[in-house]
């Protein structure tokens, strides 16, 4: 069962600037939340705090002690250059001293469209292929909490669309926080859209409605297109 996550933050200051304001963030169990906001507003900082990759400042409280339940997918693919694709996708199990499930690894590699490239090293793959490999590795971990920082930013538009559809299916039932610059990506995948809005004293969360409950939503759905236009306008106002 996927856990919920709650984070109470005091004002976060970095480099002498107020980045995130004093706020409470709740991420419901088994739901996908997209986190948007202008560049530099503090989205990755918030995600790193949730992941335990940044130490919590005094006065902060994270109601989610289970970092062992968390899979992380960042902007960089973090593939190990000396391992082939299959070795990279099964790295987590190997590091834990477990026998990797090669059947599942091969199936995930096929699902992300990299069948036949199992023996390729990262240097032999394109940026988009490496990002797909990183998605397969993240899903291989089969964790109930998945934190993703612009996971599809490096791939071309058709591949991104396909990976979003794939990810929506494979991430269903997990507690997912997805940082993205792309309002359409947020609206296709997320049960909830949260915008970090710049403010004096640090950015604050702003809820945005999503059309309907079932994901992935169709990009051509008029309700999705209208919500995308609204979100784009809101983000442009903040930039
Ligand atoms: N360790 C640090 N020391 C000082 N400043 C930092 C540190 N980490 C982040 N910052 C600053 O905090 C702000 C928020 O950074 P963050 O990466 O969280 O933004 P973001 O919303 O994810 O941006 P982007 O969309 O461009 O990736 C930026 O102004 C950044 O320069």
Automatic annotation (TrEMBL):
GO terms for molecular function: ATP binding. PROSITE patterns: ABC_TRANSPORTER_1, ABC_TRANSPORTER_2. PANTHER family: ALIPHATIC SULFONATES IMPORT ATP-BINDING PROTEIN SSUB 2, TAURINE IMPORT ATP-BINDING PROTEIN-RELATED. It comes from the Bacteria. Residues 202-221 are annotated as: Disordered. This is ATP-binding cassette domain-containing protein. Keywords: ATP-binding, Nucleotide-binding, Transport. InterPro entries: AAA+_ATPase (IPR003593), ABC_transporter-like_ATP-bd (IPR003439), ABC_transporter-like_CS (IPR017871), ABC_transporter_ATP-bind (IPR050166), P-loop_NTPase (IPR027417). Belongs to the ABC transporter superfamily. Residues 4-223 form the ABC transporter domain. Pfam families: ABC_tran.
